[in-house]
Amino acid sequence: MPxxxxxxxxxxxxxxxxxxxxxxxxxxxxxxxxSALPRTAFVAPNAPELCPGAPDGYQWWGIASFERxxxxxxxxxxxxxxxxxxxxELQRHGLSEDRLALVGFSQGTMMALQVGPKRERALAGxxxxxxxxxxxxxxxxxxxxxxxxxxxxGDADPMVPIAAFHNTLAxxxxxxxxxxxHVSRGxxxxxxxxxxxxxGAFLAKVLAQERAGWKPAVQIL
Length: 221
What we know:
There is one protein chain. The protein is built from 5 helices and 8 strands; from the N terminus they run E-H-E-E-E-H-E-H-E-E-H-E-H. By secondary structure, it is an alpha/beta fold. It has a single domain, classed as Alpha/Beta hydrolase fold, catalytic domain (Rossmann fold). The longest helix is centred in the middle third of the chain and has 26 residues, at 68-93. The chain is globular and about 45 Å long.
């Protein structure tokens, strides 16, 4: 989705979908943020693997269990693919990492937190919805960059429990990441209006396109 201003992009947002979804689904967030980010391009790739049992669905890696070692190995296996995609998109738009933000949902949040801080140059920011760090202990690596992070989660999430949000928030905070967070009361594995608004405001801030008083027009279900 090109910039709404009709000019060359001065910043880029890459949206990373969750397990069993696809890029066409998550690009649906972009229209609600375009008014706040008029010179930002949005792109939402499909994850690299087809997801068994999910028509038109993809996965960053297969989730056979939520055992920690399996999650870390899966995220590490998918990381080079996302890194290569980021490289290609930055080159295509003629931008550097400081003009890039990653937005993830669920498994996409795991990928954003796996790949973003390991980039050689710091990203502008990371937004993580309904997700977690696959390897919270890995955030202590002194070689990591520390982009600004916004975590948003529902306290009634049955897929990624709220405890995972708190563990990730604690790890980011303990290791010096600039981090903001929001918990939506009664929300399940989804994005609500407050989360949508906070995400747009955060992106506008870290990409230096903040517009006072901007509000999203439509709720994401």
